[in-house]
């Protein structure tokens, strides 16, 4: 590729709408442009990155027995009505009608259509397991599309669906995909963690997320440095602190005017935050519930929702709280409440608690469980924090932000039952397929790779994702000798199978260097007046900044070596197909 | 690939909705399934064919300087309103609204969005020419989707757009694409013709279509066997027959009760059909026009429409004809008509014509141009027929049916003007980009390849498109030796870089042979009791039926040779990038 002919519109300024680094750099480096909110055009260099990720994903899916198919983007409503998700999806689903007024959606996911395909085409246990995948555009009408490729409305996913005879088969397919995904992200050169996750609305039980660690991540993960425990904080199991807090004493009403927050109450009364009981009101479907946690803890909504098995859970509105408790939010507590009360298991260890008094400007001290209030259920309802003990070993947990680039699910029979998809087993009995589904956010992986690999000058691509391995820059295109030598090196690189870009623009060297850093080619080769005098070229690595003069006759050999070593550093010891 | 694990649901019966061979065979061979009307799922083998065509297209676009991008499928209405096509497209465009009630369409084509991209990102003549392409799903809400992949509602196209400084530049880009397209279809192993075509609604002037010759084609093409002339019959220039018909005589009203058609009138009056003038009434936008052609010719609506420069042209309703002419359709003629009259140039050579008398059950004989009726315009308005003279040489034209798999257009400034897309030329003046657009129906090419290559047993793939080169069939999977040898050959083929499929199903040999023919692998290798006795394998070619016993130690060498020769026969002498 010659930069003079390449559509690579780099920018010096950050686009105003770009809130995160990856979005800024994708636009500034000329890899993509916005077409509409949450909808992007991939420019030639962005396209090359995309194709590289797709190729890696495809190879790993094939390696583990995946068969590639292509399912339609526009899907008939009937199938979604059959599974019951036509209504559930709500506004996130793009819907349309054809000229005959038949309803369709733009597929946000493909469980329905693949299950319908398999129920029609696969009928014997002999054909199982079967793993089908595609790499395709998906659509979600996000309320607030943002962060560029991290959360778009039109985005690219790889989705694979496994169909097995039973749970044992599903677990084997799941294990294959776990390995395949690990290979994919290792080959992409990314730092990531596989974490236990909550299965949420999609259903099923066991699920893991593949998280690329980066500050801009929307998810919080905790992991153990000693053992292999890692989980999305939404899912992470809390080890209760069983140390008893306080000693039983008398309950007292104390005047706490304008003292509302945990910090304020603890400060005002001179007690530790963990002596307080924090009381939150939730609306769980149509029922009101109170949730209690220790004052120094945060409620984990997902755990509350899973415990209650409700479809919708939201914090109660202040006016609803006021109606139920007779006071404003800052003064609520469990004493005298007549609704269902859930408590985190640690609440049981507070012998003398401080709580709101359900009366404005008053709190109770010396509150005692069972004597002063009752709890309907005790369970783990809180967020885990960094520094807490690992549930698997003694070590303490670390926490980090992560970008979810992949997720694998054991769906079980959820969709095969709702869509009546059955096979005949070896005894001639009809059984439901046992399914798994496995997604990789292909376009999001581009963003995640950048969020993890950049500096103030631009992107620092892992070589396996880079739009090209090397950029060759003649310092001045007005100097014939520089041009000649850069051209010669460019051709030699191409012949050696190196992906080379020649920056043959008649621009100042500074502009070309800045663009090279911005686009993030792993290797930059400079041909200038001084290198020509020295019979050398200058080779600089983007990730380390290391710079070296290399004899020009050895340049291609050196570049080949560097490329090979960089690629090798991204190759996993293959997790093969067992 | 092992057939036992492959999702390849072959059928013995034709699916009821499949009207054409390619649709029947794509479904029967297990390459695709219908998801909704005009919307299909590609199964693993179909996907492999698709990927092969895509790879060929991509290579040829890149060879001629194309840069791959990916434009969005959902496109904002604003751009289409700006170009004026939001209304024009009518019901063929799938439209939808997002949650904020903003209007979008599913792109039926991408001129608007690419022109908008280039007007924002390209501003100097130095960056031109620029050729951008994508391979992507497109959407057209066809009134009657049919013929499987030939006319679907969701289909795959490659579209490339060229941006040049001027007409000369455009012609160079056009020439490049002409060569690239020729390479693509040669490499696909298809028999095709490049024909002059009408530019129709998309605008622009020069355009060529790439037509795969096949009976099921929706288009009619004429071509010269001697010179290189070829055209869509809609566009084909007619050489007028200048032989004078009849001699001037008196006009006479003759009673022709119930004699309406050309055949009936000629028979009844005992004259040659070419002595008749055929009169047709058209509604051109809001105006009524009469069109005259010789009795043995057919009117070409496209030529009429182009001559009139009208947006809509349709044959007048019988009641409208009756109101205008005072008689039913079978008896209309030009004498005494008071509307605009267009005539094909050959009408001028009929000295004594038979025409309708604009009175039921009557015709005129001895009708003379200018004496009895006037013509507003003479021009070429008729269809060319097989056997007529070539407009370029003396030879006679042949005619054939064709499937349009590609079309290239010189758009000129149509879209750059309507979307105000300009660059700055070397004098600092702002000029409109001069554009071309170039499409390949990627999914339609799959259908076209089948329509041209099949027999009663199934598909006969050109090797460059085949889902695999060779299928290896052990006659009985119960015979260990056969299995062992088939497995060994399968592995050797894979190691030699041959795309091999092993039919390891525990099925009768007949079933496996039938499936092999149906799927259409170019080479079939059989391992059976007899071949094992003879220390050989049986190699059979799908396209010729030629069968040969080959020593098993030479089998891989032989297969490699055959594959190489077959691929070679699809390789063009490259039309390089000049």
Automatic annotation (TrEMBL), chains A, B:
PANTHER family: MITOCHONDRIAL RIBOSOME PROTEIN L39/PROLYL-TRNA LIGASE FAMILY MEMBER, PROLINE--TRNA LIGASE
Similarity annotation: Belongs to the class-II aminoacyl-tRNA synthetase family. ProS type 1 subfamily.
Domain of life: Bacteria
Cellular component terms per the entry's GO annotation: cytosol
InterPro entries: aa-tRNA-synt_IIb (IPR002314), aa-tRNA-synth_II (IPR006195), aa-tRNA-synth_II/BPL/LPL (IPR045864), Anticodon-bd (IPR004154), Anticodon-bd_dom_sf (IPR036621), Pro-tRNA-ligase_IIa (IPR002316), Pro-tRNA-synth_IIa_bac-type (IPR004500), Pro-tRNA-Synthase_IIa_type1 (IPR023717)
Record-linked Pfam families: HGTP_anticodon, tRNA-synt_2b, tRNA_edit
Oligomer and partners: Homodimer.
Enzyme class: ligase
Domain Aminoacyl-transfer RNA synthetases class-II family profile: start-end pairs: 33-462
Organism ancestry: Bacteria, Bacillati, Bacillota, Clostridia, Neomoorellales
Family annotation (NCBIfam families): PRK09194.1 (NF006625), proS_fam_II (TIGR00409)
The protein's name in its UniProt record: Proline--tRNA ligase
Entry function: Catalyzes the attachment of proline to tRNA(Pro) in a two-step reaction: proline is first activated by ATP to form Pro-AMP and then transferred to the acceptor end of tRNA(Pro). As ProRS can inadvertently accommodate and process non-cognate amino acids such as alanine and cysteine, to avoid such errors it has two additional distinct editing activities against alanine. One activity is designated as 'pretransfer' editing and involves the tRNA(Pro)-independent hydrolysis of activated Ala-AMP.
One function term, GO molecular function aspect: catalytic activity, acting on a protein
Enzyme Commission number: 6.1.1.15
Location within or outside the cell: Cytoplasm
Keyword terms of this UniProt record: Aminoacyl-tRNA synthetase, ATP-binding, Cytoplasm, Ligase, Nucleotide-binding, Protein biosynthesis
Catalytic reaction(s) noted: tRNA(Pro) + L-proline + ATP = L-prolyl-tRNA(Pro) + AMP + diphosphate
GO annotation (BP), single: prolyl-tRNA aminoacylation
CDD domains xref list: ProRS-INS, ProRS_anticodon_short, ProRS_core_prok
Source organism per UniProt: Metallumcola ferriviriculae
């Amino acid at each position: 590729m010659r930069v003079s002919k390449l559509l690579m519109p780099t920018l010096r300024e950050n686009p105003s709408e770009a809130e995160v680094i990856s979005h800024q750099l994708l636009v500034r480096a000329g890899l993509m442009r916005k077409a509409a909110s949450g909808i992007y055009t991939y420019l030639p260099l962005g396209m090359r990155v995309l194709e590289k990720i797709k190729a890696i994903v495809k190879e790993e899916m094939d390696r583990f027995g995946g068969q590639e198919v292509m399912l339609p983007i526009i899907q008939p409503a009937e199938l979604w009505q059959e599974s019951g998700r036509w209504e559930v999806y709500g506004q996130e689903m793009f819907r349309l009608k054809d000229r005959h007024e038949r309803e369709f959606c733009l597929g946000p996911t493909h469980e329905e259509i693949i299950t319908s395909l398999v129920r029609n085409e696969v009928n014997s246990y002999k054909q199982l397991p079967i793993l089908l995948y595609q790499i395709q555009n998906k659509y979600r009408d996000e309320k607030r599309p943002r962060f560029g490729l991290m959360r778009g409305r039109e985005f690219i996913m790889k989705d694979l669906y496994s169909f097995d005879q039973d749970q044992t088969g599903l677990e084997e397919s799941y294990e294959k995909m776990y390995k395949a995904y690990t290979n994919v992200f290792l080959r992409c050169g990314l730092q990531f963690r596989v974490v236990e996750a909550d299965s949420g609305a999609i259903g099923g039980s066991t699920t893991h997320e593949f998280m690329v660690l980066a500050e801009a991540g929307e998810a919080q993960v905790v992991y153990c440095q000693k053992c292999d425990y890692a989980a999305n904080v939404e899912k992470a199991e809390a080890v209760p602190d069983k140390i008893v807090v306080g000693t039983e004493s008398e309950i007292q009403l104390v005047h706490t005017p304008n003292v509302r927050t945990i910090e304020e109450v603890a400060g005002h009364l001179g007690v530790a935050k963990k002596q307080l009981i924090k009381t939150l009101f939730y609306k769980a479907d149509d029922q009101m519930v109170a949730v209690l946690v220790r004052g120094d803890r945060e409620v984990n909504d997902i755990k509350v929702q899973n415990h209650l098995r409700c479809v919708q859970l939201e914090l109660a509105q202040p006016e609803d709280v006021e109606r139920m408790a007779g006071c404003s939010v800052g003064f609520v507590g469990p004493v005298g409440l007549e609704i269902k009360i859930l408590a985190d298991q640690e609440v049981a260890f507070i012998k003398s608690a401080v709580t709101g008094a359900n009366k404005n400007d008053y709190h109770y001290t010396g509150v005692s469980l069972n004597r002063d209030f009752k709890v309907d259920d005790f369970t783990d309802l809180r967020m885990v924090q960094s520094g807490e003990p690992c549930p698997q070993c003694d070590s303490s947990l670390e926490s980090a932000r992560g970008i979810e680039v992949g997720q694998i699910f054991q769906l079980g029979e959820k969709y095969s039952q709702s869509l009546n998809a059955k096979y005949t087993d070896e005894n001639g009995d009809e059984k439901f397929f046992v399914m798994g589904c496995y997604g990789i956010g292909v376009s999001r992986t581009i963003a995640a790779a950048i969020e993890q690999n950049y500096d103030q000058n631009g992107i620092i691509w892992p070589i396996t994702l880079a739009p090209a391995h090397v950029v060759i820059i003649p310092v001045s295109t007005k100097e014939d000798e520089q041009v000649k030598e850069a051209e010669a090196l460019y051709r030699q690189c191409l012949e050696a199978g190196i992906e080379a870009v020649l920056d043959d623009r008649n621009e100042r060297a500074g502009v070309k260097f800045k663009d090279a850093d911005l686009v993030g080619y792993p290797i930059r080769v400079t041909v200038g007046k001084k290198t020509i005098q020295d019979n050398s070229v200058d080779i600089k690595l983007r990730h380390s900044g290391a710079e070296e003069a290399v004899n020009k006759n050895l340049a291609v050999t050196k570049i080949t070596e560097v490329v090979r070593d960089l690629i090798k550093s991204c190759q996993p010891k293959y997790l093969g197909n067992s």
